[in-house]
Specification:
- This protein has three domains: 55-159, Immunoglobulin-like (Sandwich), CATH 2.60.40; 162-185 and 228-431, Rossmann fold (3-Layer(aba) Sandwich); 193-226, no CATH class.
- 34% of the residues lie in helices and 29% in strands.
- It is built from eleven helices and 21 strands.
- Strands 1, 3, 5, 7, 9, 10 and 11 form a seven-stranded mixed beta sheet that branches. A six-stranded mixed beta sheet has the order 18-17-14-19-20-21, sandwiched between helices.
- A hairpin with a 5-residue loop joins strand 17 (273-279) and strand 18 (285-290).
- The N and C termini lie far apart (70 Å).
Length: 434
């Protein structure tokens, strides 16, 4: 309980004339009476705030929120007393979230309710907690204020933004788009799984003609194939300190998660199973599943996943994944390579490649590329350019020293990771390499 500005102002108004008592003693009794009256009223006001108000508060909101998007929250305040309640409301939303519409002052008539709507924008994925709202009540004369905690405690789950995910999916699957990387035209009938027999069409390869069916039907018949199904796509994700790097407001780790969700969406549409394993301080294993269930498992398993300061252990992660996988799979290892990774990364990739098809995606800092394109005007610019160029040269040397074939390693800026993974996946599907 704290005194209000009104009470402090009244005390100041009554105390200031006390300095004149030495010259005007007649003011003693009126001033003493005013102070006594203020003291009595103040004590009565304090007594009136001894108990919490008869308020019942309900909070209505979605249980799942998208990150970096504004969402609405409704607070309904029910006055269960016979007196009007004047209060200021501030909800206990998660720390650091952006808020619009709070604090809110309102007046609730007896036996009625008021609904307050405000907006929040979550800043990161994961589980978030709402505590009981803060209700600040003023006494009838406004001399005292007291804050109460009234209402429910609720939790929400903050997931990646699906609108961005679907945008990445549409962009990645448009293989004729210049921004998708490869300009390719898909040929009819590619794949290795038999689909159907059909009449020969102009442009079909002679190798696709089924000669037995041609002899039986007395006309050219072609065997049509489709991309292989019932395969496995496994993500091996680094959750260590290197993934904490940021280009703008989005970390490399969040870019990696968006790429994983994009490729998972496409893979489950192709009839393949998707799974994931992380290595670092947070070690999670999501066994591969097909269809929408597989995508849902991936999404539920990574929405609260965060990178930390742990150093990655590639050999240990590869050994753990080999013990969990019995069927041949397409393994996508996502990390940020450094020159000290040559031996560990090479041994991990060699181990995984004994049974599986492996691709390593190394995320490169976009800011380094930007430095090389900035004009050099001062000594500091030249030093920055030289340092960035030297670092990138050392990085290229370390990556080449790994001995991984070009088709199994990409060094890419994070924002292009989704397109690169999808293109590589579709190439594998069309070629039957898996």
């Amino acid at each position: 309980m704290i005194p209000s500005r009104r009470l402090l102002l009244l005390i100041a108004v009554l105390i200031l004339p006390a300095f004149l008592l030495f010259f005007m003693p007649l003011l003693f009794w009126p001033l003493s009476g005013a102070l006594a009256l203020l003291l009595v009223l103040s004590m009565f006001e304090m007594w009136s705030l001894r108990r919490a108000p008869a308020l019942r508060i309900e909070r209505q909101m979605q249980g799942v929120w998208p990150v970096d998007l504004w969402n609405s929250v409704n607070l309904t305040l029910h006055n269960q007393s016979a007196q009007t309640i004047r209060c200021e409301v501030l909800d206990a939303y998660p720390h650091r979230w952006q808020c619009k519409g709070l604090p809110h002052q309102t007046e609730i008539e007896p036996s009625s309710f008021k609904r307050i709507e405000y907006q929040l924008c979550p800043d990161q994925r994961g589980d978030a907690q709402f505590s009981a709202p803060f209700i600040r009540i003023k006494s009838r004369l406004g001399l005292w204020e007291r804050t109460f905690r009234i209402g429910p405690t609720q939790g929400v789950k903050v997931f990646p933004d699906f609108s961005k995910l679907m945008g990445n999916t549409l962009l990645a699957t448009d293989r004729r788009s210049p921004t998708a990387g490869n300009l390719r035209k898909r040929r009819r009938g590619e794949g290795t799984d038999f689909r159907q027999l059909r009449d020969y069409r102009q442009g079909d390869s002679q190798r696709s003609i089924d000669w037995k069916a041609t002899a039986r039907y007395q006309k050219p018949i072609t065997r049509e194939y489709q991309e292989e199904r019932d395969q496995q796509v496994i993500f091996l994700l680094d959750t260590g300190r290197r993934m904490l790097s940021k280009d703008g407001n989005t970390s490399h780790f969040d870019h990696a998660l968006n790429a994983i969700l994009t490729l998972s969406f496409i893979a489950q549409k192709q009839g393949d199973a998707v799974g994931l394993m992380t290595f670092g301080s947070s070690q999670r294993w999501l066994a591969p599943h097909k269809g929408r269930a597989g995508l849902d498992r991936i999404l539920a398993g990574i929405y609260d996943l965060q990178a930390d300061e742990t150093a990655p252990d590639f050999s240990l992660a590869a050994s753990a994944l080999m013990r969990r996988l019995n069927k041949r799979a397409f393994i996508v290892l996502i990390t940020n390579l450094r020159d000290e990774d040559d031996e560990a990364m090479r041994s991990a990739c060699d181990l995984l490649s004994t049974k599986h098809l492996v691709m390593c995606a190394s995320l490169r800092e976009k800011s380094l590329d930007a430095i090389l394109h900035q004009p050099i005007q001062q000594l500091n610019d030249a030093l920055r350019y030289s340092a960035a160029l030297h670092y990138l040269q050392q990085r290229d040397y370390a990556i080449k020293h790994l001995g991984i074939r070009a088709g199994q390693l990409i060094d890419i800026i994070p924002e292009n990771l989704s397109n690169a993974l999808v293109n590589r996946y579709l190439d594998i599907k069309e070629s039957g390499a898996l």
